[in-house]
Amino acid sequence: MRNLDLSIKNSCSYFLRYIALCLLFTTVQGFSQNSPIIRSEVDTTYIKIGEQINFKVTVETDSTSQVIFPEGQTFSPLETVEALMTDTVKKLDRITLQKIYALTQFDSGSYTLPRQQIMVNGKPFFTDSLKINVATVPVDTLAQKMYDIKPLINVEKSNGDLWKILLWILVVLLVAGLALYWFVFKKKPLSDEEKVALLPPFDRAILGLKQLEKSKYLIQDDYKSYYSELTDIVRSYLEEDVHVTALESTTDQLIDKLEMMKDAGQLKLDHETIQQFKKVLQTSDLVKFAKSKPENSVAEQDRKSVEQIVIKTKEAIPEPTEEELLQREEYLEEVERKKQKKKIIIVAVTAVLVLLFSTAAAIGYYGFGYVKDTVLGHPTKDLLEGEWVQSDYGFPPVSLQTPKVLLRQAVKLPPEAQASIKEMQAFAYRSSIGLFTIATTSITLAQPEDPDLDKASEQILKNFEAQGAKNITTKQEEFTTLTGVKGIKLYGSGKFAVPESKELISGNYVVLFFGGKGFQQNVILTWLADDNYADQIVDRILNSVEVKTTL
Q: Transmembrane segments in this chain: where (predicted)?
């Protein structure tokens, strides 16, 4: 940016300008200290069709006074867009009331803002009338040539939504990852039923018998439920720990199987325990099928008998050998490892497939370069797709759209230019990476002479060379803004020096020159060659440039 400022400074002696101050009309009605003071003003007297002016009325009066401002469409031929709330400031026994009206007009011409009546304590006071000029966009229908309708052209796809697509992809991946973590990997707290189900068969049977002891089945004379649960507990235990089909067997079948296992030496259970178990099962059959109702003491004793049967059966089961225990432990660990490995593979493959599919789709639609720049970042791409700013810079003003606000530059005029230049205002933005710069200058001189734009163009090229630029190519043509203001466009390419590099880099430049009696306005753009995003930024800026050449 320092190099750009030097270029602006060195060309100052060739820029002819004059200052035209914006007019601010203020009408004041003065009275004595105790009388109300009425002031009115507008922020501008020159607008385009549809633009707004702010008409401000200020009343300073005694704090006990009653003030009534004009309401409704009293500003004809101007139209009231909005009447803002009255602003009140009190100081000692005086009060200051301020009201702002937003006014507009949709036809070009010169209009008179009529006097407005302000009532203070029932007494009328009036503001001064003001002249408001409303300009239209000039259209020369006579000089404009007629052309055939242009053929259809292919429009490039908009790339502005790619970041949204990538964001949605990341969101989907994040949600999928969280879901996998929550439902697959995260260890959730177990419910009471799950904790009981994880207990060994013997512990589960003893716990079930303890809970049955605390139940209210016997109090409610529900012997069927009591004995059904009692036999289910012992049958489930035998099926899991003894490996005998107990749940689907009748009483006689189950006793016969236990006797056979006892005789075969697979279950070291004494004959008395088996007979006691048979007796409990027979009592249960009578309760469930014959609706028998034994004494509560008998039912409680049967529960205790079943508990002893479970304990003795547990003791009668041969202990597994150390080799069997080791094999079972290794088997369970291997099963768990395979489950975890399978989960990890599924998650990894799913994530990779989603990422590859999304990347391939984005590259196919937008192109590899755009996707790479979106993922890795690109300075001018970020500028192009960011929020742009429309603003006026300097006086006479230069209006344009830019991706960033241009900042005022402190410019010290050289001694040889101070005699002829009355004022110079410069604004600029420079990207932190590369050659991309935007700058505007507005210069006014003491003498109202037409500027020599050709000489200014030559000086710009000399300044580029003085700063180390080489192989500069230059072209010049007429440039016309959308509102018909004509200027000169100087453009080309070359090898330019930048502060962060000792080597010259290839770049492009455009300089716009506008001027009138005693003033000149410049717009200067430089950017890296082969930067498609910068090309689009420059086109958008050039299409937005407007200058005011009549004061």
A: 12-31, 165-185, 344-368
**pLDDT score recorded for residue 158:** 54
Point out which residues pair with 245 in neighbouring strands. none
Residues in the chain: 551
pLDDT at 137: 59
Whether residue 332 has pLDDT greater than 80: no
Backbone angles phi, psi at 410, to 5 degrees: -75, 115
Q: What is the pLDDT of residue 365?
A: 63
- Cis peptide preceding 77, ω within 30 of 0: yes
Token pair recorded at residue 105: 């007009």
**Torsion angles phi and psi, residue 368, rounded to 5:** -65, -45
> φ and ψ at 364, to 5 degrees?
-65, -35
- Edge-first strand order for the sheet with 398-402 is 389-393, 398-402, 546-547
Whether residue 523 contacts residue 439, with contact meaning beta carbons closer than 8 Å, is answered with: yes
CA triplet 458, 461, 462: central angle to 5 degrees? 85
Mean pLDDT of the residues in the chain: 77
Query: Which residues of 121-250 form beta strands (DSSP E)?
Result: 123-126, 130-135
Give the predicted TM-score (pTM) of the model: 0.40
Angle at alpha carbon of residue 472, lines to 381 and 545, rounded to 5°: 50
Three-state DSSP at 374 gives helix
Q: 292 Cβ partners below 8 Å, 6+ apart?
A: 223, 283, 286
Tokens coding 41 = 């003003």
Cβ atoms of residues 546 and 483 within 8 Å: yes
